[in-house]
Amino acid sequence: MNQSYVILTESSSDLTPELAEQAGAEVLPLSFTMEGKNYPHYPDQRAMSIPEFYERMRNGAVAVTAAANVAELTDGMEVHLRQGKDVLFLCFSSGLSSTRDACAIAARELQEKYPERKIYTVDTLAASAGQALLVLLAGRKQKAGASIEEARDFVEETKLHVAHWFTVDDLTYLKRGGRVSPTAAAVGTMLNIKPVLHVDDEGHLIPMEKVRGRKAALAALVKQMRETVVHPEEQTMMISHACCREEAESLRESVLAEFHPKELMTLDLGPIIGAHTGPGLMALFFLAEHR
Question: Using a CB cutoff of 8 Å and minimum separation of 24, what contacts does 97-106 make?
Fold first, then answer.
């Protein structure tokens, strides 16, 4: 393992403590506010558990997120720079948050203070388990001996092949965030319309199609994988869900039966993304010809 550098990311990646350890990465917390109180989200869910977060949402609580604090990012990087380590920071998509800008500001300031150290930030253009997948793969490169530049370049070359496909069960949260209009949300709810969305090459959340019913929406995720996946039997893939574990297990069985991936992990969607999608999200993440 190349121990000359450390990989950092934020909790928008939804990495569990076990996966962070497997990747050899450190996860800096992003925060959300609910019912007037601010909560930093750590992989071990110490401030608020993910089930409690979604239960509160179901009971009407509104969660709001904010970009990372530059000072906190600076502190998170500097502790490693002081120890003589270089830093590779894999950032939350700039198409979904200004966190990447805060990260870049922190890196520039630290580079002046530590000119002998290497500090690289990469806009993953990814979120949730898509971001987690890039961190995990980069960590495996590091463990195989890759230099910090080789790991950085690998992420840059791979990120636009990380497909994010997902659906939500309740349009209320997308309406609140301006992703769908109030009229579309009302009509969609009445007709049981479920949107199928993805994250595009600019890292933005884009609605791609509308289907009727949850079962059809989940089938649409598998269809998208079928059309674009490359060498599934060699891949690590991920499923992400927001408190709908039984459906996640069913989706997992479908993916295993059809695509036989080398590895298929199931992650809980954390509050940083879940604040905008609500409970009931289901998502597939995999390497594809294109996003």
Answer: 97/12, 97/65, 97/67, 98/67, 99/10, 99/12, 99/30, 99/67, 99/68, 101/67, 102/67, 102/68, 102/69, 102/70, 102/73, 103/68, 103/73, 105/70, 106/70, 106/73, 106/74, 106/77
Which residues fall within 8 angstroms of residue 242, CB to CB, at 6 or more apart? Answer: 54, 268, 269, 274, 277, 278, 279, 280, 281, 282
Q: Which amino acid is at 176?
A: R
**C-alpha angle with apex 241: 58 to 94, nearest 5 degrees?**
95
Phi-psi region of 40 (alpha: psi -120 to 50; beta: other; left: phi over 0): beta
Helix, strand, coil percentages in the chain from 3-state DSSP, rounded to 5: 45, 25, 30
End-to-end CA distance of the chain: 31
3-state secondary structure of 238: strand
The residue written with tokens 């990087």 in the block is 77
Query: How far apart, in whole angstroms, are the C-alpha atoms of residue 54 and residue 213?
Result: 22
Spatial distance between the Cα atoms of 198 and 126, rounded to a whole number of angstroms: 10
Q: What pTM, to 2 d.p., does this model score?
A: 0.94
User: What domains are defined for the chain?
Assistant: 5-158 (3.40.50.10170), 161-287 (3.30.1180.10)
Task: Give CA–CA dist 199/125, Å, rounded.
Answer: 8
Of how many residues is the chain composed? 291
How do residues 134-147 score in pLDDT, each as one tens digit?
Answer: 999 999 999 999 99
- Pairing verdict, β 30-34 and 63-65: antiparallel
Residues 53-76: pLDDT tens digits?
Answer: 999 999 999 999 988 899 999 999
- Amino acid, single-letter form, for residue 268: D
